[in-house]
Amino acid sequence: MYRKTFSSPLFRGISWIFIATSIASVLRFLLIFILIRFYTQEEFGLWASITSLAAVIMTGDFGIVNVLRNLLSKEIVNGAEGDLKSKELFYSAFFSFLFFAIIFSVLIIFISPYIPYETLFKTDNIVLKEQGRSIFIVVQIVFLLGIPFGLGTPLFFSYGETNFYSIISIVQAVISFIIVFLLSVNHVEIYIISILYFICNMLLSLYGTLLFIHKRKWYSVNLSYRKICSNMCMMLPIGIKFLGIQLSSSFITNVLTVYSGSMLGLSIAANVNVIQKVYMFLTGIYQSIFNPMWSSLSLNFFKRRYSDCKIIINRSLISTIVIFSLTVLLCSLFRNYIMHAIAGAEYEAHSSLFILIGLFFMAKLLFDNASLLHNAINRLNILITGYILFSCIVFLFVPYVVNNYGLNTMLFILIICWIIFIIAILCDTHKLLKDRI
User: Fold this and answer.
1) Where are the bilayer-spanning segments (predicted)?
2) Calpha distance 308→71 (Å, rounded)
3) 73 is in which domain, residue-wise?
């Protein structure tokens, strides 16, 4: 059984993406150390602000990439006819995003003199403010173009070609690191580094999309304006659901630091944020394996291999519980070493806080794991409903808990909410598969 598991395409895909994400995460971590070492606190703050603002712009695909992944996996079972449909869906999204990227880029260039971008960067350094303004204008255009240019790379997952996605990710991380390192040691200004960093990533994403088109042999397409609009109108409502799920998940994940800082004090928030960063780093690497699992579940479901879907979900849940139980235990045992190594001797945390935050992230990871099938087949209404209820609890009830009962009680309640959410999703998954097996 285990020999079959380890030799399966899914396991090879998981191995590829795990290695790629680990390398990329370590290089991004080292990149921050380099920037801190060679640039002033305000210059690094400019970099941090720009990358954070860029993360917001990245949601501009409205979840269409996730919709495309699922639809392309579904169309694989339909042979040549499905391939033609997949090509039409891909180019409909590509041309639509390219059109809007060009329109908005031109608009940004014309209206930028009238927008006070410099107010986003609070500093007395006038030169740095102007550099921040220049970077932000360029970054907006780069990321707008990056949406269509990077459309093809994540779609490798739909065809089980995780190795191509992983290699592109590794090359992207290595080249970006080398560029930033060489420019930093030569004391090139931070705004030039920032612009080149984002342009480099965009061009490599474009290469990934061109490689995807080459692998599919989708060199030409004949699409009418009406057909493009029809395809986008079909995909957009589902994409907006994916976007809502992403934003709700991000809000719930970051609420720990937000509520700690606003209700318990900035020193507590600082400690919580460092612990949160530790677990986000670890879960981020582990969570990367969900990408090939997502596509595998989608393909198996549409090929009516429902028993395989059940096996994938059950084994991944058991693996997640075992691996992250040990992770939380080890992190809590070595918490002071971890805190001091990352943030300095003035940072510390009680074992209960480290364990509770670890269990919070473990519960979220289990939920993401349990809901993979729902994401893979666009069964999103139950996820949307659950996230709306969860967000209402976090927004309306949790502040009262923090003020009156403290941080640990808040974490305990959030963990219970995740567990209830997990049970509801697993029950729905069981019913979904049982009716078909």
Assistant:
1) 16-40, 46-68, 89-115, 135-157, 164-184, 190-213, 234-258, 278-297, 317-338, 350-367, 379-401, 407-427
2) 19
3) 1-223
